[in-house]
């Protein structure tokens, strides 16, 4: 997806709060999460499972709507993002008379959910660890600051174009 969210974006923050709540609740369930059938006999597991699935349903519906909107506005001459590339591949296969079971609406929704959440969570964790390690290693922190100052300076924020300069 060619879409980025700022820290102030309410939809993004809402998704991240759902993800965070689910990760905490799943962690609290421990090994019981692998024995889903226990939810029928253990009230706390049943209620946790229900809350987790409710949050997942909200996310699934949101991404389903996003895919529907992309289908409505799809233009093969103006590919905007991953969703459009996927839709274009589905269209090309259909025109050739091919039917790949791996290219369908449900798989597209699953893919963008995975990209959104897996990418967001791992990126956030990587940044948190980097900050922790820099805090624990002042000499490395100093060298990193010197490199930033030499490549970017102190008068502006970094941009992707700075990568070419290093």
UniProtKB/TrEMBL annotation:
InterPro entries: Cyt_P450, Cyt_P450_E_grp-I, Cyt_P450_sf, Cytochrome_P450_fam2
A GO term for molecular function: iron ion binding
Gene3D superfamilies given in the database record: Cytochrome P450 (1.10.630.10)
Pfam families (alphabetical): p450 (PF00067)
Superkingdom: Eukaryota
GO terms classed as biological process: organic acid metabolic process; xenobiotic metabolic process
Signal sequence coordinates: none
Keywords for the protein's UniProt record, in alphabetical order: Iron, Metal-binding, Monooxygenase, Oxidoreductase
A GO CC annotation given for this chain: cytoplasm
Assigned protein family: Belongs to the cytochrome P450 family.
Name by which UniProt lists this protein: Cytochrome P450
């Amino acid at each position: 997806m060619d879409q980025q969210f700022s820290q102030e974006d309410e939809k993004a923050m809402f998704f991240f709060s759902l993800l965070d709540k689910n990760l905490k609740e799943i962690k609290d369930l421990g090994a019981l999460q692998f024995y889903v059938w226990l939810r029928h006999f253990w009230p706390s597991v049943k209620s946790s499972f229900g809350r987790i699935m409710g949050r997942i349903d909200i996310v699934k519906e949101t991404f389903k709507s996003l895919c529907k909107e992309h289908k409505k506005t799809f233009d093969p001459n103006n590919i905007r993002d991953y969703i459009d590339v996927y839709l274009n591949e589905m269209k090309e296969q259909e025109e050739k008379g091919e039917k790949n079971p791996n290219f369908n609406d449900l798989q597209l929704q699953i893919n963008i959910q995975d990209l959104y959440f897996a990418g967001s969570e791992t990126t956030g964790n990587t940044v948190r660890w980097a900050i922790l390690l820099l805090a624990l290693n002042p000499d490395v922190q100093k060298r990193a600051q010197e490199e930033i100052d030499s490549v970017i300076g102190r008068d502006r924020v970094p941009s992707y174009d700075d990568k070419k300069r290093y």
